[in-house]
Amino acid sequence: MSTTSHHPPHAVEPTRRDRSLDERLADFIRAAYANAPGVQRWFAQANLTADDVQAVADLEKVPVLSKDQMIALQAQEPPFGGFLAVPIEQVHRIFQSPGPLYEPQGAEEGWVRPGVSVLRSVGFGPGDVVLNALSYHFSPGGFLLDGVLRSAGCTVVPVGVGAAELQVKMLVDLGASGFAGLPSWLMTLLRKADEMGVPRAQIRLRRALFSAEPLMPADRAYLIEHYGLQIVNAYATAELGFLAYDTEGAPMMRLVEEPIVQLVDRHTGRHVQSGEVGEVVVTNLNSTYPLIRFGTGDLALYHDPAPGISRQQERSIRLIGRIGDAVKVRGMFVHPNQLRAALTPFGVTAFAAFVRRPTTRDEFVLRLVGGEEAQSQQERLLATVRELCRVSVDAVEWVRELGEQAGKIVDERSWNA
Predict the structure, then answer these.
(1) CA atoms within 13 A on the CB side of 127
(2) Measured between alpha carbons, how far is 126 from 322 in angstroms, rounded to an integer?
(3) What is the dihedral of CA 72, 76, 81, 82, to 10 degrees?
């Protein structure tokens, strides 16, 4: 594997205020290298040892580890690819994200402090009863946000997604003041409340945290105008927790203080300059499951108000797209390989998926090639897709051929409205 220069032309040197972070990073790298064989092997491919990374500026020496590469490593050495750095008895939970990608969670809580700061930016705190509508099933989003909300002093109602009428009733009965989850799901709940004849005065929501999908400007304006909500829109990933947030409805999102977030050229691995687009790459300082220079696959425009001297939380990014084949549908990443695994046993010879957004909810449509036997099993086929991908299909179109779209997930959504 090729490596980057140890002294790239526009690496950001740590400021004096970052020295303690440099020391913590060096300790983290040493422990990860000593305890996780996968980390040792990843460093060895770049002719590195733990001693080569003593500060944040040294991270550029480490090749970016993509999610697809981690999936391959876990397949070669199940279940964690050699990246588990503690004995299994110290692992509290094991999650699975699309890919599949296994993610162990231990006693570490480094993701809590930045998460609490994000929540408090719009006033979440003691006395708030919050519906947590991120999934608690398989993926870590619901559990991790649950812990952050409780650490902020909130009372959590773990509802996940589904049962809209029941969730409306809980909003009213519990006097819930907060919501956390997909913006499209809150819009669905509020429309359902109107259909049920619930007076808006009985909806006592005051603040919301949105994540896992873009917040449409029109939806944000509606929620503020009609419900007076204070809104924080957060960028987070299942593996890494909160990374950036915005409370003003601006396209740029301010980075959190930790973990270490870098914007890098996807071809060279070097830091991009302010005003350039790079891949979001993160080092998590997680003693259980150390991810060093983990590539999220997200592309973002980078802004640094004072290059070379600013702190991370003073910098900002604007998400503009993704690298690779996975597409996020209703907050869950779906990869073509998942669809292939679900569809092939039923005799489907080719497939394409289309993600659309005709209203405020993602629409997931499959276009399939298959004979009568495959078509006769459509109900079981869709149940299998829902089980493996954790996203339900809205419509199926059986066709004779697909051409260049075969095997792809086509994102037809527009986020400019």
Answers:
(1) 6
(2) 37
(3) -150
pLDDT band at 416 (very low <50, low <70, confident <90, very high): low
Which helix (DSSP H) or strand (DSSP E) does residue 151 occupy? helix 141-151
Q: Is 305 helix (H, G, I), strand (E, B) or coil?
A: coil
pLDDT in tens, 303-327: 999 998 899 999 999 987 777 777 8
Contact between 263 and 59 (Cβ < 8 Å)? no
CB contact at 8 A, 90 and 106 = yes
Asked if 277 and 101 touch (Cβ cutoff 8 Å), the reply is no
- Asked whether the whole model's pTM tops 0.90, one would answer no
Q: Which of these, 182, 155, 177, 170, lies nearest to 229 by C-alpha position? A: 177
Q: What is the 3-state composition of the chain as percent helix, strand, coil, each rounded to the nearest 5?
A: 35, 25, 40
Closest CA to 204 of 240, 166, 168: 168
What single-letter DSSP state applies at residue 15?
P
Give 246's strand partners.
233
Q: What is the pLDDT of residues 122-167, one digit of tens each?
A: 999 999 999 999 988 888 889 999 999 999 999 999 998 889 999 9
Give the C-alpha separation, 179 to 206, whole Å. Answer: 9
Q: Which stretches within 280-377 are classed as H helix?
A: 336-343, 372-376
What is the DSSP pairing of strand 294-303 with strand 277-283?
Answer: antiparallel
Domains, in order of start, for the chain: 16-110+258-322 (3.40.50.12780), 112-237 (3.40.50.12780), 327-411 (3.30.300.30)
pLDDT, one tens digit per residue, over 226-235 is 999 999 999 9
Name the packing angle between helices 183-195 and 164-173 (round to 10°). 80
Long-range CB pairs of 84-93 (<8 Å, 24+ gap) are 84/36, 84/288, 84/289, 85/31, 85/32, 85/35, 85/36, 85/39, 85/287, 85/288, 85/289, 85/290, 86/35, 86/287, 86/288, 90/288, 91/288, 93/140, 93/143
**Single-letter residue type at 236:** A
How many C-beta neighbours within 10 Å does residue 219 have?
18
Name the residue with tokens 């997604």: 161
